[in-house]
Amino acid sequence: MAKGRIVIDDALCKGCELCTTVCPKDVIHMAMDRLTPRGYHPAALVDPVGDCTGCGICSTICPDVAITVYRWVPASKAAVAAV
Amino acid sequence: MTDALVESLIYAKPDALTHVGTHYCPGCTHGVAHRLVAETLDELGMREQTIGVAPVGCSVFAYNYFNVDFAEAAHGRAPAMATGIKRLSPGSIVFTYQGDGDLASIGAAEILHAAGRGENITVIFINNAIYGMTGGQMAPTTLPGQKTTSSPLGRDVETQGFPFKMCEILAQMDGSAYVVRRSLHDVANIRKAKKAVRTAFEVQRAGLGFSMVELLSSCPTNWGITPAAALTWIEEHMIPAFPLGDYKIHSAVAALEKSR
Amino acid sequence: MPKELLEGNVAFAEAAVRAGCEAYFGYPITPQTEALEHMARRMPELGRVFVQAESEVAAINMVYGAASAGARVMTSSSSPGVSLMMEGLSYIAGSEVPVVLVDIMRGGPGLGNIAPSQGDYNQIVKGGGHGDYRPIVLAPATVQELIDLTVLAFDLAEKYRWIVIILADGSLGQMMEPAEMPPMRPVRPVAERPAWALTGARGRDPNVISSIYIDPVLEEQFNFKLMRKMRQIEADEIRLRETLTEDAEIGVVAFGTAGRIAQSAVKAAREEGIKVGLLRPISLYPYPFEAVGQLSRRVKSLLVVEMNGGQMLDDVRLAAEGRVPVSFYGRMGGIVPMPDEVLDAIRKVHAGQPVALPGA
Fold first, then answer.
1. In the A/B pair of chains, how many CB contacts fall below 8 A?
2. The domain spanning residue B147 has which CATH number?
């Protein structure tokens, strides 16, 4: 199971591709098969084997705050998990 | 008893940002800078006492993106407007958010004097070496040889002068308490930039004087390259011209950082 | 309160203090610098805000900021400095924040000189900065009026969320006259600042003070809003003084110091048997078109007297609607006309002769 996952908001993503260049696990790819309401090809999590660690590097570079990041953490550490 | 795993929220939109999608170009680092300021306001619990001053430039609509009271200044005049707001608003946190034309060209006198007076405001200075909103003209921070619509053959220092190094200039004012230059071109530098933005607002809260964080930023559209290539351009071309670093640090800032 | 001998510049500055002015931002410029100097001492004394800005451009933008924060604020300057403030005034009008400005006019155009003139009428009364707006403009003729109108200016600015400009000249700024200062009004507490002001979004949606309406449809709606405000001002805030106009055959129209000089000339002319009266507008915007129009129905001719080349002259012609001839007597360059010159002009009008300007 993946340690983390991200949700990219199509309404905000402008397809700038910066997240795809920094993901250490290379699990973010541009979805060329669809367009956002604003007419961009959005980025999307493509993580069939569960490599995402929820590191948050993508959310650090995203100019549009389009990425929400989750991570599975031990319950005792859950309160302090936010970067 | 095993410590069961729970799915925890690691990162989401800061409260100090609204839900409005920005009008900035894809890949423009304005969005990153906005985020760093908003995260800082949330972390320091300052959102409700903060008043921002927007410039004329791409970020003219910044008031749509921040969940704080905002004023729209005339081009270059944000430091003067911020002075009026701050001096009449005890207990408030006041910041300006300005581009290179707004701050270093038409606003050169206002920023110099705000620093000179040691106004207790925080200035977020977005330096992308070009005039974005008006379509790519030369800025005071445009690099020698850099082609813009008003320096089509490349900036000729003989007739068009040299780039302005604002951190170096403003650090010389006795009223400056925290003047630093960071970059937004990669994740490591964005994290350093975030620390600097946070320190700048803490400097204001402690009443130490004028604080400014210059952020080397990209303009993919007017530079004519992709967002990713633009970040590389910052690293390869802008950093040599505008060295990153701490140009003025008030002696009390170290104590601030220790007390975190 | 007892009358004191007061200098005009100091008087309007102190009057503003008494009216509860919380901040003064300004820049030295002759012939009004005494106001800045008075504020430099007085405001810190009272725990209020004083900043000598780096320029008039910066000063008006500091005023804009303080007004956006909901504080009572003013600045003062003279013609060349006021020109630098036009951008700021336009933004202030477009944001509907209350501001008081005093313009102590001097000779111009350009650097000109430091002597008194009324050369800024067109600039100030027709708006000043770019766009569709007209600030309230009040023209005192005595130090007492300067004091009273300055206090009124703060009230009107707040009532209408508008700019109020006191239009005076260097002679009024520099002269010393007996006048009464109003009692001290307390400064409004920060907690009582208006609901629209930038005070920090505690428990409410953020406030935005801005003059930008990027959608032309919305901009026009806003322009109509300002227009409705100005119609209200035109209905309620006209101020003027008429002397000896009931049976007048010649109507002299003059404002400020020129009005004061014309008053002496009118009295002297009456002693010569000339039926002349004076209409002295005190509000230049809103202009007393109705009153001047009524005057033009009663008299045989009008004479406008100004310390400029003929600026209010156009508004008098508008009001007269071609009913009677309108003559003009004016001095420029910072020269203050003597009552004798105006008396001579009245005599010429009375005799049906053209009024000549010296050096024209």
1. 102
2. 3.40.50.970
Q: B56: domain range?
A: 30-258
Residue in B145, B201, B162 with CA at minimum distance from that of residue B178: B201
Successive 10-residue mean pLDDT values, chain C, 360 residues = 94 98 97 96 96 96 98 98 98 98 97 97 96 98 98 98 98 97 97 97 97 97 98 98 98 98 98 98 98 98 98 98 98 97 98 92
Whether C68 contacts chain B with CB within 8 A: yes
Its pTM surpasses 0.90: yes
**Which residues of chain C make contact with B63, given a CB cutoff of 8 A?**
206, 208, 210
Give start and end residues of each alpha helix (H) in chain C: 8-18, 33-45, 56-68, 79-84, 86-95, 121-125, 143-160, 170-174, 216-236, 256-271, 289-298, 312-320, 339-350
Q: Are residues C166 and C293 in the same domain?
A: no
- Structural domain containing residue A18: 4-80
How many domains does one find in chain A? Answer: 1
* The total number of structural domains that make up chain B: 1
Note down the domain range covering C191. Answer: 3-198+225-235
Q: Which residues contact C205 (CB under 8 A, 6 or more apart)?
A: none
Q: What percent of chain B has pLDDT over 90?
A: 95
Q: How far is CA C211 from the centre of its chain?
A: 24
CATH number, domain of C325, equals 3.40.50.920
In a domain, C251, yes or no: yes
- What are the tens digits of pLDDT across the range B60-95? 999 999 999 999 999 999 999 999 999 999 899 999
pLDDT at B1: 52
In a domain, C207, yes or no: no
B63 vs C: CB within 8 A: yes
C360 occurs within a structural domain: no
Task: Name C25's bridge partners.
Answer: C51
* Average pLDDT of the segment spanning B12-39: 97
Q: Which pLDDT score is estimated for A77?
A: 80
Nearest CA in chain C to B54: C210
pLDDT in tens, B183-203: 999 999 999 999 999 999 999
The answer on C282 and C230 residing in a single domain is no
Cα dihedral A71, A73, A79, A83 in deg (nearest 10): -50
Asked if residue C254 and residue C186 are part of one domain, the reply reads: no
